[in-house]
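Standup, Tuesday
Yesterday: got the pipeline producing structure tokens again.
Today: sanity-check two examples.
Blockers: none.

Example 1:
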Amino acid sequence: MAQGNTSKRQRPSAPTQRNQGHGKAHCLRILRQLSAYIDDELSGDICDEIRRHLGACPNCETFVTSLRQTVSLCRHSPTPPLSAANRALMRKTILETTRVR
């Protein structure tokens, strides 16, 4: 009997997503644009589309809220100094990565 109750609770979420006019693929497309959206690098039309989606999709809204908080924390945190050894290792890694491509 508990299984029946669980499946009844899960069923309403699928029609709700369909009624909102988006699904997983649409969410992924929106999520790929969020950094540019937060940095105000997108056109007004795309921003409007993202805002409409966020208003209809609580999962994406939660994600963008978390992303904004993370960006804010990073912008307001001091950059830790790198030692000469760390800078050399980072440079070496970048150069090796670009050679592979």
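Example 2:
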Amino acid sequence: MNNLNSNLAGHLQAIENDGFTIIEDAINDALVNEIRSELAPFCQGKHPGRNDFEGHHTERVYALLAKAPSVAKIIEHSGVMSLVDALLPSNYLLSAALSILVHPGETPQPFHYDDAVEQLGINKPRPRFGVSTIWAFDDFTQNNGATEVIPGSHRWPEERLGNEGEAIKVIMPAGSVLVFDGALIHRGGANNSSADRLAITPQYCSPGLRQIENMVLAVPPNIAGQYSAKIQNMLGYNIIEPGFKGYVDGMHPKKLIDAQYKGRKYQADLPAS
């Protein structure tokens, strides 16, 4: 599936049925290269993963919006946003955003899903809490560590974990994006090729949940102020309405970005010009 505008319903149905969909050619080569260039200083082989999950032959870069500003263009990609808008409640948050550079020799990740909320005591199957994306910055192939997904596993009970025989590889060209239910069981595959495989994974969650990555510390006000209102809201510089969850010192958190910020209630009370 590569024409999102004409097939939004089809992509949404695929996520409901299978747990995932693929948008091919979602971004062009120029943006792929722009983001790769910004990431390059942080991918010098100095910080390999610390365990089997991160990958001992993998480099991960966190706090991306504080390091590679062009990543904002995929985080708020209009096609992805149209899907997330339909799948999550309004005021959803950016839960995580990291790059994953898988080097040759990497082994498969453990199977897992992204929106686990063990602390709430709510087991699968359950309402959707998150939506994840994985953007391909190299072609995802049979041999270079392409993501593996287990179709339909977002609807499984908590105790069913899945196995290798139930998984399929996500094969897609660079510039494509995999969009999937946060409860879908998946893993990074083994890189048995002689080349690296780069991906970026922005993940989104319902507004009442704690983000995986502490975004307001990872992307502090002086940096967040450089981004769009959409990105600022997803980072957590917003409040949940109706109500005021998320305030800072009794005020809207956007005051940390813009001292002159006036809330919508104030603006609504202004006389008509």
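Quick observation on example 2: The two ends are 48 Å apart (CA to CA). The mean pLDDT is 92.
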